[in-house]
Amino acid sequence: MSETRIIKKYPNRRLYDTAISSYITLADVKRLVLDGVDFEVVDAKTKADLTRSILLQIISEEEEGGEPIFSSDLLAQIIRSYGGNMQNLLTSYLEKSMEMWGEQQRVFQERTRDFMGGDPMEMFNQITERNLAMWQAMSGLSERRGRSRNDKGDDGDGGKEDGGDR
Which of 21, 32, 74, 102 shows the greatest Cβ crowding within 10 Å of its Cβ? Predict the structure, then answer.
């Protein structure tokens, strides 16, 4: 298992990733989260853990920038839960719910990948080949029916080959 990556936050609000010896942005920290990298953000001077604060800042920016996850009503309910005797229960419930959500997403992606054969382009190629084969089979069937009718002398005039009455 890899070590926890340390990110130092300096008084000028800059974040320094000690693993790559470079300053990073909140977008870079978000990428670490998405990539599943274990990290901790610490105050460069006091060594206080600032990880939650940085994660909340990322969530805040995400909520402002696009389609929000948290409705105003939900945020109000969460705020009302602070300090009450049910706060720990809510924390546990939300954590377990997110774990379940993540597991369901993982299973869904795995099943989708299995269904598609792992490569989306391969899946589209297979579908295209099946569709082409189906069209060719239908075309061949149509041609055989046409030949079959002509072989029986059925050229579409109701069996009157010479055009006259018998």
Answer: 32
